[in-house]
């Protein structure tokens, strides 16, 4: 099934998604990877106030850096990224975008927090045509690995983990 998703994402939207669904995401999404996601998780754990206009409830986080060459997914199963998925989901992130298989514990954390994981094609040119704007929102000292907010229109992705199931598992 193909579904249009607009941010912020609602609980009702997440409930309708199943693994293998194609989604087209429009609205604001955050971008972060190895260097910045642990910093965001630390701020959440320390109950620090986000001074950067960051609202995680119903949000999307794309596991990527933002460079002049564009954006493309990085592997979501890197320790720094995958270990952020559970805490970020608990803080309100509804959809995590990246590439690759994630572990069973991460799939369960997504399920417990009513969030999903989707894989996105590693085609920078395709995503560039669907990116309408970008803004640096936190940690500028990290350069292209800082936390960015993109305005996107119809970013394509495939739901890879939802409701305790994964497309990477043989017998689900």
UniProtKB/TrEMBL annotation:
Query: EC number(s) on record?
Result: 4.2.1.2
List the Pfam families. Fumerase_C (PF05683)
Alphabetized, the UniProt keywords read: Lyase
Enzyme class at the top of the EC tree: lyase
What's the domain of life for this entry? Answer: Bacteria
Q: Which family does it belong to?
A: Belongs to the class-I fumarase family.
Q: Which residues form the Fe-S hydro-lyase tartrate dehydratase beta-type catalytic domain?
A: 3-170
Protein name per the record: Fumarate hydratase subunit beta
Lineage per the UniProt record: Bacteria, Bacillati, Bacillota, Clostridia, Lachnospirales
Gene3D superfamilies, A to Z: Fe-S hydro-lyase, tartrate dehydratase beta-type, catalytic domain
The record's section on InterPro entries has: Fe-S_hydro-lyase_TtdB-typ_cat, Fe-S_hydroAse_TtdB_cat_sf
Give the GO molecular function terms. fumarate hydratase activity
Organism of origin is Enterocloster citroniae
């Amino acid at each position: 099934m193909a579904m249009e998703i607009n941010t912020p994402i609602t609980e009702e939207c997440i409930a309708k998604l199943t693994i293998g669904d194609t989604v087209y995401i429009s609205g604001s999404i955050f971008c972060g990877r190895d260097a910045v996601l642990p910093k965001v998780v630390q701020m959440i754990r320390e109950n620090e106030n986000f001074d950067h206009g960051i609202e995680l409830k119903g949000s999307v986080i794309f596991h990527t850096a933002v460079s002049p060459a564009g954006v493309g997914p990085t592997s979501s199963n890197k320790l720094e990224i995958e270990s952020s998925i559970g805490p970020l989901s608990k803080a309100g992130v509804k959809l995590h975008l990246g590439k690759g298989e994630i572990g069973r514990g991460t799939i369960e954390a997504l399920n417990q927090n009513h969030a999903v994981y989707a894989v996105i094609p590693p085609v920078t040119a395709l995503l560039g045509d669907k990116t309408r704007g970008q803004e640096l929102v936190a940690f500028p000292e990290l350069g292209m690995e800082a936390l960015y907010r993109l305005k996107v229109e119809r970013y394509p992705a495939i739901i890879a983990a939802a409701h305790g199931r994964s497309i990477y598992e043989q017998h689900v």
